[in-house]
Write a structure and sequence with these properties.
It is built from eleven helices and 14 strands.
């Protein structure tokens, strides 16, 4: 029986004797598509991989149709890194700046940076939180943010390597099974201490069931069915065409005076869409005859 992880799947799990839930994900094929759009160096690949794994486990907590967007901005080597994941498990993302930046801590790639976590339901108001990059690792920045914003203790563990990225997240739930604060605190501290023993290699290479047994074999853990994760860009020819149509009329005229066709490129997936003036202004087709 293989003990390698089933890649591009995320798993939710619950501890049956504690008010604690968890998530795991391992990404491989998603990252291949994510990296293919631009000539990213190792430092940016590592950063994008961590952002992708973190965004997936955060999105698994959505209780509605929508998407989660995790974005980092700075005036350092990486000016922008962004990954979004929908409630259906569709991932896309990109990075801008020095795409050959060396592998380094988050604070060196995004010095004085700011992370923005946006939750966008398909229906209803969106929520946005802003996080200062004051730690060296993305997992620590996110752990601090969730504990402060949701007032629920939360811990992230992130790993990247060999074209894959993985994440483990634990989060303490509101009182249900265990009302005693002392017991709750002790359980949380114990589970986090056990999770801290996970190595980068284990997180990337061991399947979820074996990983949960390796870390929490003295606890009763309920694992739910996996959720498939895939790279999918929601760009389209119609959206790109509408973007041109929103330009002022004189800019559209000038654009097509310089060239017969205009090509729009999607930064997320590198797909190109080409248009003529009659595509932008269908009425022009009649005036040309």
């Amino acid at each position: 029986m293989s003990t390698s992880p089933v890649t591009d799947n995320s798993f939710r799990f619950l501890f049956e004797d504690a008010d604690v839930r968890g998530e795991t994900v391992t990404l491989q094929h998603v990252l291949e598509d994510l990296y293919a759009a631009h000539p990213y160096g190792d430092g940016v690949k590592r950063l994008l991989g961590e952002f992708a794994a973190a965004t997936v486990v955060i999105s698994n907590n959505l209780k509605f149709d929508g998407r989660v967007v995790l974005q980092g901005r700075s005036d350092g080597p990486i000016s922008l890194v962004m990954v979004e994941c929908s409630s259906e498990g569709q991932v896309r993302g990109l990075a801008r700046g020095d795409l050959d930046a060396a592998v380094g801590p988050l604070s060196s790639l995004l010095p004085n940076g700011v992370l923005t976590l946006t939750i966008e339901p398909d229906v209803g108001q969106r929520y946005q939180g802003i996080i200062a990059v004051q730690r060296d690792e993305l997992c620590d920045v996110l752990s601090d943010y969730f504990e402060q914003s949701e007032q629920l203790a939360t811990k992230f563990w992130l790993s990247t390597g060999e074209g894959a990225a993985a994440a483990l997240m634990l989060q303490q739930l509101p009182k249900q099974l265990v009302p005693d604060e002392t017991v709750r605190f002790d359980q949380w501290q114990t589970l986090c201490a056990l999770a801290e023993t996970v190595t980068t290699e284990e997180l990337l290479t061991i399947d979820t069931d074996r990983l949960l047994y390796r870390l929490f074999n003295e606890w009763t853990v309920k694992r739910f069915d996996p959720k498939g994760i895939r790279f999918e860009c929601n760009c389209s020819s119609e959206r790109s065409l509408n973007a041109i149509r929103l330009l002022p009329e004189h800019e559209i005229t000038e654009l097509f005076e310089e060239q017969e066709t205009v090509t729009m490129n999607c930064e997320m997936c590198s797909k190109n869409y080409s248009y003529s003036l009659t595509d932008v202004r269908p009425e022009e087709e009649h005036t040309l005859h």
